[in-house]
## 1
Amino acid sequence: KKNLQIAIDGPAGAGKSTIAKAIAKRLELFYVDTGAMYRAIAYKALNLNIPLKQEEDITRMARQTDITLEHSEARRVFCDGLDVTEAIRSPEVSRSVSVIAAYPEVRERLVELQRQEAGRGGVVMDGRDIGTYVLPDADLKVFLTASSEERAKRRWLELQQSGKRLSLDEVQKDMEARDHHDQQRAVSPLVPASDAIILDTTGLQVEEIVERILNLIKNKP
Ligand code: C5P
């Protein structure tokens, strides 16, 4: 089906982006990493020394920010023309992002961008509120989970590979705090859509998960 929409949501480290990218490649769809957009706003706030608690200032800044996600294999992320691909993955940004992601007007602005992206053609979009809010009519909604230990380990390995030395314990604590914040916020909290398929990926290999999701799509009426 043309213009197929696949929503992949879940907590941090559940494997969303790895899985979403693989599915996008197999089905020749766009991949949209919505977390990168929230991260770009958090990064810019840190960079400009705007205190995260100043909702109005953050909101104003978000409205004036230009975010571009590259669709080619490199998938670079640009914020006001600046390449922030690596910078938005820092532990500082990870610790700050859920604060600004709770602001309704920041979300409004980014959701508008996300729906614009979806308007270009078929997409696999990952995030926290894709199935519940951004693409409520998606053809398939998947909510990925995994045990907190396994999610922390995956994230820790990624950070190690990019040269960031945090302890596994620190990574797990940061992650749990961020998930808690994402689940508790008033607007579009992290929760599975009522029609989402919940997939626990603990102990599963990436290939197995991708195959399962591709089968779900094939078997859709
Ligand atoms: O997916 P990623 O871990 O990069 O997302 C970073 C943060 O951005 C999340 O912890 C959450 O606070 C926010 N986010 C969100 N809604 C989305 C995607 C991300 O609130 N759709």
## 2
Amino acid sequence: MNVAMPASGVVPPSEEFVAQANVDLATYNAMYERSVTDPEGFWAEQAERLDWITRPTTIKNTCFDFGRVSIKWFEDGFLNVAVNCVDRHLATRGDQTAILFEPDDPEAPARHITYNELSDKVNRMANVLLSQGVMRGDRVVIYLPMIPEAAYAMLACARIGAIHSVVFAGFSPDALANRINDCGAKIVITADTAPRGGRRTALKSNTDAALLHCSDKVRCLVVKHTGDQTSWVDGRDVDLNYLMSHAAPDCPPRPMNAEDPLFILYTSGSTGKPKGVVHTSGGYLTYAALTHEVVFDYHEGDVYWCTADVGWVTGHTYIVYGPLANGATTVMFEGVPTYPDASRFWQVVEKHKVNQFYTAPTALRALMGQGDEFVEKCDLSSLRLLGTVGEPINPEAWNWYNEKVGQGRCPIVDTWWQTETGGHLLTPIPGAHATKPGSAMKPFFGVQTVVLDATTGEEITERPAEGVLALKDSWPGQMRTVWGDHERFEATYFQQYKGHYFSGDGCRADADGDLWITGRVDDVINVSGHRMGTAEVESALVAHHKVAEAAVVGYPHAVKGQGIYCYVTLMNDVEPSDELVKELRAWVRNEIGPIASPDLVQWAPGLPKTRSGKIMRRILRKIAENDYGALGDTSTLADPSVVDDLIENRKNRD
Ligand code: WTA
């Protein structure tokens, strides 16, 4: 195979791809220009891709001024998101597969859920929610694995105007309880157990444990998925399958204002507890549908697969809302890339003739390490486009993806975005831009990026440049507020660099002006593409009775991108031991979930602190990175000798 990879490291799309692409370079340039010079006109036109009950006439009403931040799009429009994702497709593609469900067990049959069937399920579930007393604006927590019922539940909420909050099924009972309580949910929807990689997670019993910490008014709707035995609390627990089979198959959709909340999704920040990111209806869906079509070069009839979990924003926008708004066939995969072996992804691509494939660099790095035979033995000729998301992709993984998976034929879109942004903000447009391995390249339509000097906050206009990434103006998919705490929303995103939305990411603009994300500049780490606040792991650790103090930082990890490095100071009378490391790992898994499991634990007799008692994380990061030669200024340390001890006993020596 002759793989196009010029010496410059710039990879242009093939002529063949460009010829069939939705958006070529001239179109991108013209549309981008219009989107920033005439945002009202541009987005009014784009909103036409949705079916409105009342068309919006006020398009954009946004203010980024600290103290007065307010973001509204299409504010006088009315629509129903579920109608846009389901009903409006029934006349033309009722028998087309909407959701292609591939179970964890490769021997179990895949399920092709048509738009007609999706409609039936969503309507029935909506009626069940109504019968349980769920009303417009009420919150429904969804704690489900990657099964079609998760999409039914999201769309059922949208149909009746309830606000869903999906909690990743890998989160612990504590994490689930915190989210149920923070948003004041009336209902939690869960399943008996969740098979994944051949093992089962006991979701119902996790939910039972969580509900011990919640109001006794919260009802629990249970999907019988595996049929495993679970406990049952009469009066609280409800058999969802049974009620759905007895519910009416039609439920009138509720007309919703464009700015009515569609969902809350909790995400980690640098401080405090996770924030409930609020997305609304009209702008979010417009942005989800447009980005899905343009960035993945989606064409009618394509089979599209995003391997994310519905518990994260990627699953919301690019498994459920974007693809279904466009009438696509979206693959929903219950399993993991390495079960039963490292060819599972590629077998699924072959089996379902997938055209677009979207995954995280961490999965690629894990699969790359298993050897090429797993990918080479599969027929991947259906693939036309590849995508990545969640963390910077290293050139080795990029090249492997390009050569082994895309066979040099498929453009790779490296999409940078966040829970807060609702959809892609930076990405190459596959039929328009040559790509550079590791670069998220260009702003999407309507996105005005600026590189700011991290210290002065001044915009750096010359190129190349290095600084932090901020946004100058709003786009329709932007989050509107933090649930119940608008002040926190302003303080987190608009206070540090006035007049801008601050992403929390560092970035580099190269001589061509193309953008490279360099990673978080705050205390958020990115572990296997999962975003985590180091403060959350620290508070889990100090909640253990043997721990006096803890500081957590990220360090480079070959597969996960970043690993979790914990400095732990024990209580006076406690002896450190390998057993205790295991105990603390299990403790954190239990407090937050397996994704937060510490990779390295170093016993720290003391932590480097300033005289005012502030932990100097910069130093801890350097030691964790095994880069202790350049610790910078340590003169403000209260006790410089603690640093020598930490260096001597450092755990990462790579
Ligand atoms: C990181 C996931 C580099 C970034 C959609 C961001 C990326 C955080 C990329 C958001 C990318 C996401 N290249 N870094 N293509 N995509 N990130 O909220 O640090 O789970 O701020 O949203 O992931 O993570 P979140």
